[in-house]
Amino acid sequence: MAGRLFSVLDAFEDGGPAALRLTDIAARTGLPAPTALRLVRELVAWGGLERGADGRYRLGLRLRMLGAAAPCPRGLLDAALPELRALAARTGGHADLAVRTAPSADGILCLVSGDRLPPHATAYGKVLLAVPPAVLPRHTRHTVGSPGVLARQLAGIRTAGLAVCAEEFRLGEVSVAAPVRGPAGTLAALGVTVPTGVPLDRVTAAVRAAAARVRPPEPPPYPSP
Questions:
Q1: CA dist., res. 127 & res. 138, Å (int)
Q2: 20 to 30 A from 108, CA-CA: which of 37, 115, 122, 150?
Q3: Left, alpha or beta for 47 (phi > 0: left; psi -120 to 50: alpha)?
Q4: Contact 180, 214 (CB under 8 A)
Q5: What is the C-alpha to C-alpha distance for residues 151 and 56, in angstroms, rounded to an integer?
Q6: How far is residue 138 from each of residues 95, 121, 170, 210, measured CA to CA in Å?
Q7: Alpha-carbon distance 184 to 77, whole Å?
Q8: CA-CA distances (angstroms) from residue 95 to 15, 66, 122, 140, 158?
């Protein structure tokens, strides 16, 4: 039973639509529609899912609260918040901090907005992406569609320590991101999204400086044996 419940939640994990109909959930999980409905109702009653007025289901507030309580992202976000506020004020854009949803996952989770973003079409994702995915869905006419081109971009980003995506995810928006690094390497991507046409020299300098000033929290020590 627990495995089936988790499969329903996993249906929202692949970077697709944030809201799904019952038929979509059943198709993604491979569960019969009556079974999917029963599990969805249980998750709604618990607070793990919410049913919108359009009949589609979204991840619920209880899951967001549990996710926010996780020590690593929560502590990292707390450490970055002063820089995020200053970056937003300086650039006039939306500043955010993004992490990978799991070490082997392709999804990117923004800790401020809660948005899940495609890794190959955003500056946040390109900072965090180690290996280009084999399939690159197009979001606009500017989205990079070739894994080879993306691989060359990622090599340049790792060298420069900065990513810029102009209208690759949404028209009219440019995202700029830089890595937040800890002892084990890149922990997150800190960046800002600004309207197309904003002079980027000042934005890129502000993003670099903000990311460099974030000091990730130290992991808790292991208990003595």
A1: 19
A2: 37
A3: left
A4: yes
A5: 36
A6: 24, 8, 10, 30
A7: 17
A8: 20, 23, 13, 22, 21
User: For residues 101 and 108, is the Cβ–Cβ distance under 8 A?
Assistant: yes
As a three-state string, the secondary structure of the chain is CHHHHHHHHHCCCCCCCCCECHHHHHHHHCCCHHHHHHHHHHHHHHCCEEECCCCCEEECHHHHHHHHCCHHHHHHHHHHHHHHHHHHHHHCCEEEEEEECCCCCCCEEECCCCCEECHHHCHHHHHHCCCCCCCCCCCCCCCCCCHHHHHHHHHHHHHHCCEEEECCCCCCEEEEEEEEEECCEEEEEEEEEEECCCCHHHHHHHHHHHHHHCCCCCCCCCCCC
- The pair of three-digit structure tokens given for residue 116, joined into one six-digit string: 């899940």
> How high does pLDDT run on average in the chain?
84
User: How, if at all, do strands 57-59 and 94-100 pair?
Assistant: unpaired
What is each CA distance from 143 to 97, 146, 171, 174, 198, in whole angstroms? 22, 9, 10, 12, 20
Contact 116, 15 (CB under 8 A): yes
Q: Which two tokens stand for residue 6?
A: 């988790």
Q: What pLDDT score does 48 carry?
A: 84
Q: How far apart are CA 14 and CA 120, in angstroms?
A: 14
What is the amino acid identity at position 190? L
φ/ψ of 96, rounded to 5, equals -150, 165
Question: Tokens 């854009």 appear where?
Answer: 93
